[in-house]
Structure formats: C-alpha cells, structure tokens
Specification:
The complex is a heterodimer. By secondary structure, chain A is mainly alpha-helical. Chain A is built from four helices and no strands. The longest helix of chain B is centred in the N-terminal third of the chain and has 32 residues. The chains are: A mainly alpha, B mainly alpha.
Chain lengths: 108, 112
C-alpha cells in the first residue's frame, strides 16, 4: 500500500512538472507584454476573467502546490534520516495542494 | 553520460529544488493575496516597478526554474520517451535558453 502511494506521488510529481514546464513560457510571455505597454497586459488580464481561463489558472495553482508538496517529499526522503512520519508525506503533499486550491478559489 | 556529470545534474536538481521550494511558497502566498478583488496591470506594477527586492527575488526564481525544469524534463524524455541521443541534451539546452530569456524578459518587464 505504501509502495502504491509512492508510485502515485511520483506520477503526480512528474505530470505536474511537465505541465508546469509547458505553462511557463506562456506565463513569462504574458508578463513580458508589460514591456510593450500596461494596456497590452491589461487586455491579457481581461481575457483571464473568462470562467474557463479562471478554471485553468486554478488548475495551474493546484499543480504548482502539488509539485511543491511532492518536491518537499522527495527532499525529505532523500536528505533526512528515515522516520516513520515520512510515510505520511504523500498525504501531506496532497493536503497542501488541496489547501492552496481552496485558498486560491476563495480569493478569486 | 559520465557518473560525474550525472552527479552534477542530480545535485543541481536538488539545490534548485530547495531554492524553488522557498520561491514557490512566496509566489503562492503573493498570488492568493494579489488576486483578491481582481488583478490589474497597475496593481501588479505598483508592487514591482523599481522594487529591487522583487527584482532580485524573481531573477533568482527564474534562474532556478531555468535549470530545474530542463533537468526534470531530461528524466521524462529518457524514461518515458526513450530519447537517449545527444540531440536530447541539445533540445534541453534550447528549452533552458527559452525559459531563461522569456523569464528574464518578464522580470525586467515588471521592474522597468
């Protein structure tokens, strides 16, 4: 069961990493439009007000929190001496993603 | 790839992960704070324009992600897609350059 959890944690970590890497150029490009004009950036921000785009943003925040949680899990497993509580790290990572998802959704 | 080179990649990935853990935590908190009441260019820029602290923070953030993402992608391309040839690493250097260039452009965009 623990091995099963670890497999899922590794899969989520990997898939979230791939998706975040694909998102980053778009994110950077959008922020870079401020170099041209604040109006161009505002036009982009207006586009992000669409419900589907908002939902996408929310998904990216959850992915980022999941990748952070998964990464902290990997660092703890690799660098800290083994303790029993580390078995709960995957659950803690999932909880972090859930909490961030809720916090972001509530602040929207 | 030599054992030494693989070790360097492994250490770089963990070191950048540690930096990113801090950056992402700050980034998530800033986002939740900033989106309340909607986002506007003026609001974001009022926080970042001419602010050397944010400039340093985002520059470190971009630099860390520029090395972290391609190294992570390298494992995926190897293990899931079986891409082993030297062309893979050329591709990944290209990914790093794209991330670094677009990232620093964004950092300068909100600072200048």
């Amino acid at each position: 069961m623990i091995g099963h959890t670890g497999t899922w944690a590794a899969l989520v970590h990997r898939v979230s990493g791939i998706l975040l890497t694909l998102f980053l150029p778009v994110h950077f490009y959008a922020l870079g439009t401020t170099l041209e004009s604040a109006a161009a950036f505002d036009a982009l921000l207006e586009w992000t007000e669409r419900p589907l785009v908002k939902f996408g943003e929310w998904g990216i925040v959850v992915l980022l929190a999941a990748h952070l949680g998964g990464g902290l899990r990997v660092l703890a497993l690799e660098f800290l001496p083994w303790r029993d509580w580390q078995k709960s790290l995957a659950a803690a990572a999932a909880a972090l993603a859930l909490v961030m998802g809720l916090a972001f959704a509530l602040a929207l | 790839m030599s054992v030494k080179a693989q070790t360097i990649l492994w250490v770089t990935q963990r070191a950048s992960a540690a930096v990113l853990a801090l950056c992402v935590t700050v980034h998530l908190a800033t986002m939740v704070y900033a989106i309340r009441g909607g986002l506007s260019a003026a609001e974001i820029l009022s926080r970042t324009k001419g602010n050397a602290g944010w400039l340093a923070f985002y520059a470190v953030f971009v630099l860390a992600v520029t090395v972290h993402a391609p190294i992570g992608l390298r494992s995926v391309l190897l293990e899931w897609f079986g891409w082993r040839s030297a062309s893979r690493d050329v591709f990944l250097v290209g990914v790093a350059m794209l991330l670094g260039a677009l990232g620093m452009r964004a950092v300068l965009g909100v600072f200048l």
